[in-house]
Structures are given as C-alpha cells and as structure tokens.
C-alpha cells in the first residue's frame, strides 16, 4: 500500500494555533448549530490510474476522461453486449470506468489478519477498502489509532462478489458469510484495525456514501465516537447489475457521462473507493491534525411519492438543500460559490437537479459541476468522490472544468437560472465565500446534501500555524512498510513526490517521522548536500522491527564539552536558541548572576573560549542537554529511561520530570561555582577495569568513576596523572588513555572540602 499524497502540511492544507482558534471561535459561530466537523484525511482509488487526492486533482485540471473498455479480467463484454429490450440480459455499452493496476488481484497478505486461504473468499472490495482506509489515516497524519473508539461508516452499491461466487457451488465455505456480503464492508475495516466505535454499512444506492457521512457526523455530534472513518466503494466483477441498469435505460450506450450536455444519454458505471477521516474541528486543532476542509452540515431526506420510485424530485432536493443550510444556520445561500451536482447525465435527472439548485439558491449566478464526466458514476462512492473534488477545489481556490460538455442541454434553464458549467479552470469567485455544496441522490429516492467550507476561511490569518524550518539543514526521511515490496514502492512514491514538491521536504520529513506508523520493514534517507531531492537513495535496515524499542537518554558530566558546542543548533533551531536564552535569563535574575552570557560563551571558539572553567562548563553543559531534551521532544523523541553521570544528573532529572528547567540550571550553576573553589587537578580516562587499575593508585591519584567492566576514570593532581599515564602506556601500550578537559579532580578527596559551601551561596 502506498499514497503519493504524502506530506501532512502540503500547500493548501491548514494547521491551526489552538489558542488563536479558541479566541475566534467564541464569537464566530452560533452555539446551537451542529459542531463543525473537520476533514482530516482523504484517500482514493479512482479510474484513470488515480491513487491519491493529488492524482485526482491533476486528472481534473488536465480535463481527462477515464472511460475505457471493460477489462478482460472483469467479464467478457462481447458475450453480453447487445441492445436492451431486443437482446435480453445484455449490456448496452462496451465502455466504462475501471480501476487500473493490480489493486484487485494482488494483496499484501502480510499486512492483514487473514491468511492467503481466507483472502480467496473475501470480497476484494473489503480488502481494497481496508487498504485505502490505511492510506486515509496516513494522509491525515494519524498514529496509534488502531484499537481506539473510532466509528466506521461505509456506503456500498451492489453485491458483485456474492453474485460471482454464488455460481460456484463447489467452492462454498463458511467464510462466505462475511466474505461476500457488502454489509460486512464496514465490519471488515473495524475488524482489521480493531476499531471499537459504531460500525455500519449504508445501502441507499448512489447516495450511500453521503448518507454514511451523515450517520458519521451524527454519531460524533451525539458522542457515540470522537472520530470516524467514512468510506464508499463500488467494484464491478460481473455483468449482472450493468445488465439491469441497461434494461432500465439508465446507462449511456457509449459509456461516457455527458453531464448537463444536450447529448447526455445516461451514465457510465464506474469503480471507485473513497475514504475520509473526520472529527470535531476543535478536537482536530487540539490534536494538531491537518484540516483539509470543514463540514458545516450534512442532511438527508426522501423524495416522497413521485411518478415512479426511480424518478427524482426537484421539490424534494430543493427542500433538502434548504434544510441543510438551516441546519448550519447559514441564511444567505447565495454566498456559496459552487455546487457539485450528482450530475448523472440521464434524460430526467440533470434537469430535475439543476432546477432544484436554481430554486434553492434564489436563481443567483451559480457555478455547477459534475465529476462523473471525468471518472464516471462510482455509485456507492459517488457522494464522497464529489466531496473530495469540492475539498480539493477549496484547497487550490480553483474550480475544475467539466469535460464532455459542449452544447448545453436546452431543457436546463442555464440563462434564466444563472447557472454556469465551467469548461476551463476557474479562479475562486471573489464575491463568494470559500464554500461548496455537494448534492447526491439515490435511484430509490434517498437524497443527501453536504455543505463544506475551506478551513482557512473559518479563522483569522493569525490563527494559521506556521512551521519554522531552515531550508539548508539536512532532514531525515524514514520509511516503513509491512513487506519489502511495499517498502520499495514507498521509496518510489516519496521520490516522485519530491520531484514535484521540492519546497515540501521539511514538512515531508516531519510527516514521515511524526505522522506515520512505523512498520516492520524500514529504510531511511538523508536530504541535503549536492544530491537532488529526486535522486536521494534510501538505505534499508538489515533487520525487521516488530515495534519500538525502549529509548534511554544518557547525560555525561563535565568533560564532554568543546568550544563552539551548540552554536549550529542555536543557528538552525529557534526553539533551541530560545531555551538557551531563557535559562540565561534565569541565571541573570540571581543575586550572584554570572558576568558572562550563555549565548556569547557558546559561540566562542579556540583560545578565547573558557568552556573548561567549572563555573562556566557545568551550567553550559546542562543548558545544552536540557535544550536538546526539549528539541528531541518536539521531534517526537522522548526517553523511556534516563541516566546521568556527575553534573549530567541535573539534565537527567529534568528529562525525567523530577526537576523544573529553572531548578536544574540553577543547581548546575551553583555546583559549577562551588567546583571552581576546589584545588586544581585533573581526570584521566583509562580503558581497563577496576581490578587492573589498583596498582596505579596512590595518595594523589584516586579511582573516581567505574564506568564499565573495562573503563575507569582516575582523578588527582595533574602531574601525578601524567606520570600514571606514562607508566600505563609503557606497560600496556594498547590501553586507551585520555586526559579529560577539566581543571578539577572531581569525585575524589580533593573535592570533599567544598561541599559545605553550597549552602553559603545566595542563590
């Protein structure tokens, strides 16, 4: 599984500052209106090779139509093709809209909880839907979501897999119970991902997926679940439903949707899977989720009794549109910029629907469109396909064109009603809100309507959170997948994405690190240097990982410092620099404030640096360590355990939440002042164990630290330590020896006499 819509902060997406949003929301919306619902994630599989929302947008902008011959792998169209009414059980068109690639035939069984045998009985619609759900959650930057109280609402159309497998009476199995019925589509998703919220499949024909969205929004509003996955799916395996639709006169003989056109002669059936992840807007902002758009209201109704159950009602649809706007407490319908119609291109429905739109919106000028002209009628997924189109239009502030539209249908009152069908990309109307209505209706009379606003339009500009990045700094791009082939595909997708979006590399790095589940098979790449982004190479890990390993932070004491340490971090990461400046301010507020400043000392290099002086080294080392802890936390790296040595214990205690930042830096500063009062001395690191070092100890050389079975540190007078080092080098020439850059003999008898001075300091 893969998704090329990769970065959670791509252009057009919105992240929001919670405090600014709260100030704005207190006065912006009516309290008795339904809660605003954020669309956090989106994913698709649509005809024309569309495998992501980004692909979908480009497909529409390029004015493409995905009509194609019925694939040989579905059914033998030549054997069934004929003229309805003349040839019984015939399909009227040899064309349609079908998914490309191996989505139906190949399954990454390592990812799912069923073995290969079980997968042979499961409707591929269930499997593909589960894959697209995963991509949707990745698209929304969700991690650790499995096993949670998340609802699942799915709209479907038809039972082709049941129809196909029922013919093979020699291959029946108990697995057919939940493997073939479309009612189990939502159940399969919830089972695969261990979801505990409400779970249901909606079957209202062509309006199924928007009805599922309505049920999901209701469940969130009523508190049945805090968030929900909403899906719609339709796959075509047999000619049965196509035959029935052909006999009913609903399908186009040429397999093309000519929505609103004078030549419209029915719709063309299409395959598709669309998925959204939604939650309350305030919750999405709290969780720092990307917000792709905001649902103001969703409403449903039924046409009532018309001339026939399959005949739509203009009055019924008009009433629904008005109902949705009342529900959202939006009085001026004319502020809406665009209506994405159901647009099935049948003789009756286009006229009925546009009449309803014209009447509901007061016959003010209105742009209308229908995505079925691009991708066909995806039936169970049709409502969500139109909604995803609307969200993409809001993000790009453009309205995509209709294709297969040349001569307006004379029965549609375009001029009288002020309706316009775009044939080229249109900029967003400056006199309208960033708002779209999406209309949908089922062949049996169930209608659904959703109103969606851009996220950015609902809050002041200062509430939009900006990400601070340094474009010259390297970035880590980690990848993971459930299998090696999937990992290879992910690497291809990332390189493809970077080739088109060089500017998004920092957002991409954040998303891959923080907003992705990390699966068993892993790889990484580092950006930066002279290598073009699209040419980076991913390095695969030698071993697989089943889960995260415990992380331990180790904090050394004085002796690990060097002149200029931290200067690049301060230059590249503002949060790191602010932490240094904050701790400097804490020390400057003390009665015995230092005469030096942290930032100035850290950027000194060479002989001018006093980094080895105890009263400077200890607070600076602690400040660097604390700032690193905070920076790593921003990147999502936190310790499971901490260990500190010597003055490193202060930062370790801070990392363990045992000390505040203020207390830790004051203690380090105080210890440095006291250590500076001790007699001069030195420390020597030796690569031998405790048992082997005893012969080199004396009155002026002590064992200060036992670091490991093969490493100790000695402390004492510097000249005595140098003599010991010379002796060890002579007797054991392969032994590691290092004189530490310290000016005191810490952890030895030479520092015992100064501990009482801590209580005498004014800080």
From TrEMBL:
<dbReference type="InterPro" id="IPR001227">
    <property type="entry name" value="Ac_transferase_dom_sf"/>
</dbReference>
<feature type="domain" description="Ketosynthase family 3 (KS3)">
    <location>
        <begin position="34"/>
        <end position="454"/>
    </location>
</feature>
<keyword id="KW-0808">Transferase</keyword>
<dbReference type="InterPro" id="IPR020841">
    <property type="entry name" value="PKS_Beta-ketoAc_synthase_dom"/>
</dbReference>
<dbReference type="Pfam" id="PF16197">
    <property type="entry name" value="KAsynt_C_assoc"/>
</dbReference>
<keyword id="KW-0597">Phosphoprotein</keyword>
<dbReference type="Pfam" id="PF00698">
    <property type="entry name" value="Acyl_transf_1"/>
</dbReference>
<feature type="region of interest" description="Disordered">
    <location>
        <begin position="1"/>
        <end position="28"/>
    </location>
</feature>
<dbReference type="InterPro" id="IPR016039">
    <property type="entry name" value="Thiolase-like"/>
</dbReference>
<feature type="compositionally biased region" description="Polar residues">
    <location>
        <begin position="1"/>
        <end position="13"/>
    </location>
</feature>
<dbReference type="GO" id="GO:0044550">
    <property type="term" value="P:secondary metabolite biosynthetic process"/>
</dbReference>
<dbReference type="InterPro" id="IPR016036">
    <property type="entry name" value="Malonyl_transacylase_ACP-bd"/>
</dbReference>
<keyword id="KW-0511">Multifunctional enzyme</keyword>
<dbReference type="Pfam" id="PF02801">
    <property type="entry name" value="Ketoacyl-synt_C"/>
</dbReference>
<dbReference type="GO" id="GO:0004312">
    <property type="term" value="F:fatty acid synthase activity"/>
</dbReference>
<dbReference type="InterPro" id="IPR016035">
    <property type="entry name" value="Acyl_Trfase/lysoPLipase"/>
</dbReference>
<protein>
    <submittedName>
        <fullName>Type I iterative PKS</fullName>
    </submittedName>
</protein>
<dbReference type="InterPro" id="IPR032821">
    <property type="entry name" value="PKS_assoc"/>
</dbReference>
<dbReference type="InterPro" id="IPR050091">
    <property type="entry name" value="PKS_NRPS_Biosynth_Enz"/>
</dbReference>
<dbReference type="InterPro" id="IPR014031">
    <property type="entry name" value="Ketoacyl_synth_C"/>
</dbReference>
<dbReference type="InterPro" id="IPR014043">
    <property type="entry name" value="Acyl_transferase_dom"/>
</dbReference>
<keyword id="KW-0596">Phosphopantetheine</keyword>
<dbReference type="Pfam" id="PF00109">
    <property type="entry name" value="ketoacyl-synt"/>
</dbReference>
<dbReference type="GO" id="GO:0006633">
    <property type="term" value="P:fatty acid biosynthetic process"/>
</dbReference>
<dbReference type="InterPro" id="IPR014030">
    <property type="entry name" value="Ketoacyl_synth_N"/>
</dbReference>
